[in-house]
Amino acid sequence: MTTVLLIRHGRSTANTAGVLAGRTPGIDLDELGRDQAVRLAARLAEVPLDAVVSSPLERTRQTAQPLLAARPETLFELDERFTECDYGSWSGRTLKSLAEEPLWRTVQAHPAAASFPDGESLAAVSARAVAAVRSWNAKLGEHGAYAVVSHGDVIKAIAADALGMHLDLFQRVQIDPCSLTVVRYHGTRPAVLRVNDLGGDVSALIRKAAPEAGAAGDAPVGGGAGVGG
User: Fold this and answer.
1) How far apart, in whole angstroms, are the C-alpha atoms of residue 112 and residue 126?
2) Is residue 17 helix, strand or coil?
3) Which single residue of 10, 101, 154, 177 has CA 20 to 30 Å from 58?
């Protein structure tokens, strides 16, 4: 079983301004977001990770930094497949103004059909993000555990897939800044261990000792509306 810790970046300057950042460069964590990242890293300090994977955008890399500071030998990679949705011409606009657009209703009620002007479809986001998780699972193996620092809609799409939900239902999943969502991938099905965790105990995520030869089991690890982030 492979375990992935899905971490949304901490609160950003775009979040506080009510702006859909998308892939706009130069969007950093605000003061609270930086504090959130430090506190999350402290909470996860005892959880062994084989890798930390991040979206290439500034706010995700800044969130990943405290995790890495405590794990200088841990593999770190940027993976474009975990980057924010390309919202095209919606990027940089306020959520208030976007709520007046006809497409907004589709994004909320029928996201599988939503494609952003001059940008990407939510179906494409889901496909690339889920494929990336499967790829990392294969790379790290059945006893692997890794963190992915990404964005709200990306994490919602991965969680929806793991829950066996149609993408049209993914707006029912809330993913707050610097929240933790954990999925364990078995050979035949995923198990969602937690969603949008903002402060729960993580001792169950500490890797257990490997089983004795021939023993049963396989030493497992573990035991929001709108758009953008």
Assistant:
1) 9
2) helix
3) 101
